[in-house]
TrEMBL record:
Keyword Mitochondrion applies: no
NCBIfam families with a match to the protein in the record: glgC, PRK02862.1
Alphabetical UniProt keywords: ATP-binding, Carbohydrate metabolism, Glycogen metabolism, Nucleotide-binding, Nucleotidyltransferase, Transferase
Family the entry assigns: Belongs to the bacterial/plant glucose-1-phosphate adenylyltransferase family.
InterPro entries per UniProt: ADP-Glc_PPase (IPR011831), ADP_Glu_pyroP_CS (IPR005836), NTP_transferase_dom (IPR005835), Nucleotide-diphossugar_trans (IPR029044), Trimer_LpxA-like_sf (IPR011004)
Annotated protein name in UniProt: Glucose-1-phosphate adenylyltransferase
Listed GO MF terms: ATP binding; glucose-1-phosphate adenylyltransferase activity; structural constituent of carboxysome shell
Lineage: Bacteria, Bacillati, Cyanobacteriota, Cyanophyceae, Leptolyngbyales
UniProt record, GO biological process: glycogen biosynthetic process
Keyword presence, Transferase: yes
Organism: Phormidesmis priestleyi
E.C. no: 2.7.7.27
Domain Nucleotidyl transferase: residue ranges: 6-274
SUPFAM superfamilies to which the protein is assigned, alphabetical: Nucleotide-diphospho-sugar transferases, Trimeric LpxA-like enzymes
Amino acid sequence: MKRVLSIILGGGAGTRLYPLTKYRAKPAVSLAGMYRLIDIPVSNCLNSDILKIYVLTQFNSASLNRHIAKAYNFSTFSDGFVEVLAAQQTPDSPSWFEGTADAVRKYMWMFEEADVDEFIILSGDHLYRMDYSDYVRKHRESGADVTLSVVPIGYKTASSFGLMKVDENNRIVEFSEKPKGEALEAMRVDTTAMGLSPEESEDKPFIASMGIYVFKKQVLIDLLNKYPEQTDFGKEIIPASARDYDVQAYLFKGYWEDIGTIEAFYEANIALTDQPNPAFSFYKEDAPIYTRSRYLPPSKLQDCHITESIVSEGCLLKKCRVHKSVIGLRQRIHANCEIDHSLIIGCDYYESMDENGEFDKGDKIPMGIGEGSIIRRAIIDKNARIGRNVQIINKDNVEESEREADGYYIRSGIVVVLKNAVIPDGTII
C-alpha cells in the first residue's frame, strides 16, 4: 500500500452538523466521548498500511490541526504523514473550495508530485471500519480505472443516496442521485449477484455509493482537467467518468453510517452503548481506532447508578444516575443528576475544584452538570456550564428551534447545548 495516497475530504462549513461545527471543522467534532470524526478514516488508513494521508478542509481548522499534530506523529525514518491542507486563495485560484472535486483539483499540483499509483478519496463524516488494502487489491485485480465502494441499502434510506446499477462484469452502468417514486423503483437491482443472500437482497434491493473512491493516478488527473467546471465527485465527476472509463463497484458488507447530520450523529453515538453487541465497536485489537494521548487520570465514580453507558477518562461523577449515555473527557456530574439517552461531550480542561466537587469561583456556574439537573435526549457540547436544577428535556416537543442567544438549538427534537454555553440555575428547556 506504499503506492497509495489517501485524500480525506473534510467537508465544507458543516451546516448539517451545526451548531457542533460552530467552533470547529466537521472532522474535528467529538465522537464516542474521546475520539474525533477524523480518527475514523485516518485509523482505517493506518490499519490498511496506507501512510500518506492528506486532509482537505477550509473552515475552523485550528482544533483539527492541533489534534492531528498531537495524535499522528511518524518516525523520521518513515515516509508516512497526516497533513491538513486548508483552502487558500492564489492568483490561479482566487475562490475557496466549491465542492469535493474542486477541493482535490485545487491541490492537484501537489498530489501529482506524489510517487504513487492510486489515490483513495475518503469522507470525514462516516462511522465504519474498513480494510482499504483489500479494496485497493480488488481495484488492481479488476483493472478498473475507478472503483467505488458501495453498500446495499433498503427503501427507508435509498432516496437519501446516490444509487447505481452494475452489469454482469460489476461495471457501473447507471447512476441516479437521490431518486424518488418511479425513479427509485427503476434503480432496483438483484444484489444476490454481488454476494448477498436472497433474504438480504429482498431487504436491500439498492446499491448506494459510500463516497469512497479509488482512482488510478493519471485517471483522476485527466478527469479533473477534462471537466474543469465540475466541482463534485458524486454528482458530476463519477457519473461523467462512467462514459469513457471502466468504473467498477466494490461491495462493502460491514457497518457503515453517514453521521453528517445532528440526528444521525446522535443516534450513532447512543448506539455505541447497545448491549451486548453494538453495531459498531471500538474494541477490535487488530484494527484499533487511534486518537491523541491525553494522559488523564481514570474516572472516579462516587455512589453512582450507571447502566448501558460509556464513561471516558478523567471524569468525576457523584451520586448521579446515567442511562444509555456517552460521557466525554473530564466531565463533572454532580449529585442527584439524571442523564438519559444523552451525549455529554466533556471539557477541554479542569477548573479549580477539588475531587469532592467544591468550586472556588464565587457565584460563577462551574463547567459540568450542576446538582439536581435532568438531561434527556440531548447533546451537551464542550465546556458547557449547566446550573443546578436545570431540566433539558425538550418539554414542548419542539422539532426545530434556534435559540443561540439562550445557548442552545433543537435539531430533529434533540436539544444541542452550545460549546461554552451557560445555562442558569433552574432553567427548563
